[in-house]
Amino acid sequence: MYLGDGCLSRHPRGVFKLRISLDERYPGIAAECERAILEVMPRNRVGRVLYGGWREVYSYSKTWPCLFPQHGSGRKHEREIRLADWQRRVVERFPELLLRGLIHSDGCRFQNTGRGWSHPRYAFANLSEGIKTIFCEACDLMDLHWTASGEKTIYVSRKADVAVLDRFVGPKS
Q1: Three-state SS for 46?
Q2: Assigned superfamily of 85-168
Q3: Would you state the torsion angle of the CA atoms of residues 127, 58, 13, 44, taken in this order, to the nearest 10 degrees?
Q4: Which of 3, 4, 62, 147 has a CA 20 to 30 Å removed from the CA of 132?
Q5: What is the pTM for the complete model shown?
Q6: Under 8 Å between Cβ of 116 and 106
């Protein structure tokens, strides 16, 4: 979720605020995000603030930059984003969790239609070359075929591959 909809903000005394911005239409994703933060930082409080149609889930810690070395000034799509070696090893063990978070933050599942046919398809859209590469590498780890279209969108369209993603991504809720 951090790679898609998150950021770190510096606060006094070396404390950072992890902020994840989530669509209010999907409270299940927000609850899962809160549980994940608590899993990593069980003694830290997780807060939430509503802003019209979206919610921010947040938590303070001095440790966040260690866990998210992708942190930096400026927009993610304007700087290099890559996984640290230890993050890559985690993704190699659990690529489905990374794909689930990326699709829930910057992706969707929809019906792709043509003349006389219709089947589901996943799309992931991000301006960051690094984040798109991370998404594609996770797909490769699971032997999922993907295609790129335009500057920012990656599709997973083959029926068998969509079925694999359906097993762990699930509908946005």
Answers
A1: coil
A2: Homing endonucleases (3.10.28.10)
A3: -130
A4: 62
A5: 0.93
A6: no
Closest CA to 35 of 67, 1, 69, 7: 1
Strand 117-125 and strand 54-61: pairing?
unpaired
* Per-residue model confidence (pLDDT) at position 169: 95
Q: Which residues of 111-128 are buried (b: 16+ CB within 10 A; e: fewer)?
A: eeeeeeeeeebbbbbbeb
d(CA 109, CA 171): 8
Distance CA(128)–CA(114), nearest Å, equals: 30
Q: Which residues have CB under 8 Å from 117's CB, separation 6+?
A: none
Eight-state DSSP code of residue 74: S
Encoded tokens for 27: 């409270």
Residuewise pLDDT in 10s, the chain (173 residues): 899 899 999 999 999 999 999 999 999 999 999 999 999 999 999 999 999 999 999 999 999 999 999 998 888 888 989 999 999 999 999 999 999 999 999 999 999 999 999 999 999 999 999 999 999 999 999 999 999 998 999 999 999 999 999 999 988 88
Contact of 152 with 102, CB cutoff 8 Å: no
Domain ranges of the chain: 2-73, 85-168
Q: Which two tokens stand for residue 133?
A: 């590469």
